[in-house]
Amino acid sequence: MSEERPADRLARRVASREATVAVIGLGYAGLPVAFTFAEGGFQVLGLDIDEAKIHALRTGRCYIAHLGSERLAGALGRGRFEPSHDFGRLAQADAIVVAVPTPLTPQRDPDLAHVVATARTIAAHLRPGQLVVLESTSYPGTTDEVVRPILEATGLKAGADFFLAFSPEREDPGNRQYTTATIPKVVGGVDPVSTQLAAALYGAVVERVVPVSDARTAEATKLYENVFRAVNIALVNELKLVLDRMGIDVWEVLDAAATKPFGLMRFDPGPGWGGHCIPVDPFYLAWKAREYGVTARFIEHAGEVNARMPEHVVDKLVRALGDRGVPMRGARILLLGVAYKRDVDDARESPAFEIMKLLLDRGAVVDYHDPHVPRMPVPRRLPSLPALSSTPLRADVIAARDALIVVTDHTSVDYELVARHARLVVDTRGVLRGRRPNVVQA
Ligand SMILES: NC(=O)c1ccc[n+]([C@@H]2O[C@H](COP(=O)([O-])OP(=O)(O)OC[C@H]3O[C@@H](n4cnc5c(N)ncnc54)[C@H](O)[C@@H]3O)[C@@H](O)[C@H]2O)c1
Fold first, then answer.
1. Is ligand 1 within 6 A of the CB of residue 173?
2. What is the DSSP secondary structure assignment for residue 389, as one 8-state letter?
């Protein structure tokens, strides 16, 4: 009897749910993927270099609040999810999904150190018949030009011995309407067999798989999605600056424009941009474009506009305090919200940090309130920031501050209480619309 080919064996094990799926990187992107495979009937091995995370998961503590401990308990309880930091276990996996960070260097170039380190770890355990899928967002060519050579240095060949694909993660933290299983999954392999196998793997647990020609197309698709957001956020932030000068209420304009039933997607202005993806990913494409002699001008401009917004907010505050005869040096300022967006506990790349730094540089005394972020993580980029804890939002606290800045529009905050007791509110999110003597839009 002829021996079963690696691709056929993998397809059979996926179809029968005998396959073990390893997920490397159990963060915001990787953990929901791990849960989804476990809920879909697969045995899941969750791997992370962060031992504290592995310990938390093993003891039933889900450190990503919006995922909920029930999903973790369900996956652990059914014996389908095994968190581990023993990367030697990779040899047991049929499929390996990679969701490690892809940040920027201080020069704002792609930093693929985590992807490269992970690819080397996989290479050390790679065996024929395995499927490797990169989910970390990166520039077109990463899977083919960076990951593939590391894996092929083992002597095994992609498309014949092992299989390799890219499939972007499309999580929208805090969005209860969609789950990993109901968000269509784009998949592109470095060859047709890899595409097919990766499509079969995700097809077993998500409602709709969208296969594309190759890994580069899948990588570019993800970047386009995030460039779309980055550019539209910049556009509406720029509009806010222009209309502010003209004395036109940007929120009224946006509410009215949003009644157009076609051809318009609403974006709201804010204090800048934040999160792990939108301020980062577009620069991966801009960087790669330069290799081809192309300047991605929309991306660069969006970066400039969004990165300047914290300065605009602080300028507005300085002027409003000046009008009230309050100097910035020694002024007590409370930031309302440090999470990068509404109702999430994620403060990565939040514009709150830049605002805080600008305030501290001017001699202000700063604290914050955020119901979702009890302790403020000090960002690597701004290590001089103090490690603060959330101040309770009471009437006496509000009244004791020279100003409050609404940075994040969390829904659980009582903005009327704020407006009633604050001497001054600088509102970057339009939570206190209409004319009020103590509210300044910024
Ligand atoms: N956060 C999101 O909503 C989101 C959405 C789409 C895409 N992504 C992409 O997913 C990737 C991961 O982002 P994230 O938000 O989940 O980051 P994260 O920091 O929340 O999680 C990454 C995890 O990887 C672990 N890790 C780092 N290096 C590792 C290594 N060498 N081996 C094993 N584990 C390692 C970290 O300890 C961490 O737990 C990024 O490329 C990001 O752009 C994230």
1. yes
2. B
Q: Is the CB of 29 under 6 A from ligand 1?
A: yes
Q: How far is the CA of 360 from the centre of ligand 1 (A)?
A: 31
Structure tokens at 67: 């995922």
- Report the number of distinct structural domains present in the chain: 2
Q: Is the CB of 194 under 6 A from ligand 1?
A: no
- Per-residue pLDDT reduced to its tens digit, 129-166: 999 999 999 999 999 999 999 999 999 999 999 999 99
Helix axes 281-291, 215-246, angle to 10 degrees: 110
Q: Are residues 137 and 91 in the same domain?
A: yes
Print the domain residue range for 106: 6-213
Among this protein's residues, is 277 annotated catalytic? yes
Residue 99 to residue 309: CA distance in whole angstroms: 30
pLDDT digit string (tens) for 72-84?
999 999 999 999 9
Tell me, yes or no, whether 20 lies in a domain. Answer: yes
Q: Is residue 416 domain-shared with residue 298, that is, in the same domain?
A: yes
Q: Are residues 193 and 276 in the same domain?
A: no
- Looking at the DSSP assignment, which residues form a beta bridge with residue 47? 24, 84
What number does the ligand 1 atom closest to the CA of 28 have?
A: 16
Neighbouring residues of 216: CB distance < 8 A, sequence distance ≥ 6: 140, 141, 143, 144, 188
Indicate whether 221 belongs to any domain.
no
Same domain, yes or no: 206 and 247: no
In CATH, what number is assigned to the domain containing residue 99? 3.40.50.720
Q: Among 48, 89, 223, which is best to mutate for testing ligand 1, by the most ligand atoms less than 8 A from CB?
A: 48
**Per the domain annotation, does 219 fall within a domain?**
no
**pLDDT tens per residue across span 189-229:** 999 999 999 999 999 999 999 999 999 999 999 999 999 99
